Amino acid sequence: MFLNGATSAASLFTQQGRKGINQDAMIVWENFGDRSDTVFCGVFDGHGPNGHMVARKVRDILPLKLRASWEVYIGNDECRENNISSTRSMSSEETSSVNLNEDSKASVGFEERVKHSETFTILKDSFLKAFRIVDKELRLHPDINCFYSGTTAVTLVKQVGY
Q1: Is there a contact between 155 and 127 (Cβ–Cβ < 8 Å)?
Q2: Which residues form the PPM-type phosphatase domain (predicted)?
Q3: pLDDT-derived band of residue 21, with 50, 70 and 90 as boundaries?
Q4: H-helix or E-strand containing 32?
Q5: Please, what sign has the CA dihedral across residues 125, 109, 79, 32?
Q6: How far apart are the first and last CA of the chain?
Q7: Structural contact between residues 40 and 66, judged by C-beta atoms closer than 8 angstroms
C-alpha cells in the first residue's frame, strides 16, 4: 500500500508539511512471505537533500531483501527443526517415569520458548542481513547520492499468534 488508507492490520497517513518535499515513506505488507498470519510494517523518515529518494528506495527494496533472507534462514531452519524434533522425542521417552501431567505442562512451555527464541533469531539475522544488503545497494545506486542523505527506518514483522 503506497497511499493513505487502512486495512484490518494497520492504517497509514502522511501529510505534506510546510518545510518542502515530504521525505516520509511507509509500507504495510500483509501476507508477508506468503504467510497469511504475517504483516511487515515500515516507516522511513528521510533526511538530507535526497532523503525522500533514499526513504522511498529503502521502502521499496528492504521488504524484498528481508523476505529473501528470511526464506533462506527458514529453509536451513527446517533441517535443524527435524533434528530437534527427533531429539525431543528421545528425551520424552527417556523421562517416562515423570508424572505425565507435569511433564506435558513443562514441555509445552519449553517448546514454546524454544520456538519463539528460534523465530526471533531467524528474524533478527534476516533483518541484519537485509539491512546490510540495502545499505550496500544504496551506496552503489547511480541516481541517489547518499553522502549527505539517508533515512531512519523503523520496521517490524508481526506474526499473529506470537
Answers
A1: yes
A2: 9-162
A3: confident
A4: none
A5: negative
A6: 24
A7: yes
The helix (H) or strand (E) run that includes residue 1 is none
- Which amino acid type is present at position 4? N
- Is residue 112 packed enough to be buried (19+ CB in 10 Å), middle (13-18) or exposed (0-12)? exposed
Which pLDDT belongs to residue 77? Answer: 52
The amino acid sitting at 76 is N
DSSP β-bridge partners for residue 98: none
Q: Check the CA dihedral 154-76-159-104 and report its sign.
A: negative
Output phi, psi for 81, to 5 deg.
Answer: -65, -40
pLDDT digit string, tens, across residues 78-103? 544 444 333 333 333 333 333 444 45
Measured distance CA(99)–CA(18) in Å, rounded: 68
- Residue type present at position 42: G
Question: What is the value of pTM for the model shown?
Answer: 0.71
Instruction: Domain ranges for the chain, please list them.
Output: 5-159
Confirm if 133 and 63 have CB atoms less than 8 A apart.
no
Cell of 137: 545497494
3: Cβ contacts below 8 Å, ≥ 6 apart? 12
